[in-house]
Amino acid sequence: MGQVPLMKVLGIETSCDETAAAVVEGGRRVLSNIVFTQVAKHRPYGGIVPEVACRCHVEELPGIMDHAMEAAKTAWEDLDAVAATYGPGLASSLLVGLTAAKAVAFRLGIPLLGVNHIEAHLYSLFLGDGARYLEKREPLVVLMVSGGHTALFRVDGIGRYEQLGQTLDDAAGEALDKGAKLLGLGYPGGPEIEKAAAGGDPEFVRFPRGLEQRGSHGQIRGMDVDSCFSFSGLKTALLYYLRDHPDAVTGPRFRDVVASYQEAVFEALVDRLERAIEKTGVRVAGCVGGVSRNKRLRLMMERMAERQGVALLLAPLEYCTDNAAMVAAVAGAPGSLVARGGLDLDVDPDLVVGSV
Hints:
Number of strands: 13
Number of helices: 10
Order of helices and strands: EEEHHEHEHEEEHHEEHHEHEHE
Strand order of the largest sheet: 3-2-1-4-5-13
Oligomer: single chain
Helix content: 25-40%
Mean pLDDT: 93
Number of domains: 2
Strand content: 15-25%
CATH architecture of the largest domain: 2-Layer Sandwich
Distance between the termini: 8 Å
Structural class: alpha/beta
Largest sheet: 6 strands, mixed
């Protein structure tokens, strides 16, 4: 912790199914950001296969790193440090990126930095147009929503985070993937549902939002129930609806059904973020993660922010999904939770924010 600002950092991201490398200068200026997506390789299986992801990282990462260095117009000897995601994520995938980073650090004699994937996503708010918020002192309430993570955080500054709530079962991205499969759509489910829902009536079917009762004073896993999510009942409701309406997938109201399912996921997300704003009194809201690319969700966030009279900060589209720019950037940010490691630094698939 408390590292001095670094000039040029090579970042490596292989926590799941994106193979990525980037060069960032001074924790803000993105010189390159190269991402190879493995979607086509996992699509036949309808989900991520860890063994396939790991092998793909091994095959693609060397070329992706070279591409990132060339695009950044940076010589290897000009790097000040190399950073890699060391958790959370798929253990076998994390190992590929961290091992590559160790090799670079050893060969060049530069620091090796282990980056928390969650913190990197939170920091993505401060890339691009969000850079000006780095100087501001207001705390933020941030929703992280992706295929593997759905959680709420209070961010009081770089390296200062409090988790307010999380999903109790599936992440929102998983709920979209599983819903898409039930609806006969492709993988990944989020983009497929977004396309199929275009022009549909989001109020056609009232699917459950999960943990809808406001004002609960209970605790679940040490977190406020009001700030937690649950999507398991939503998937079951969709399953029963399709069972009871066998023509829903082929009938004229298909778009309406898809739009209604998507709305249930997003309304739950926005509702919990709004509750957190009301409870904490924080006046700046944010949203990060791959699901935050969805246009409908962004519109709902904007309407909520206007209703609450708060500022809204959304991660730039290119930094929503897993990428290495956010990894390299947070590694060079003073105060971040990076682990300064040697060659003995190991991956931590269950790493949480606040641990190093």
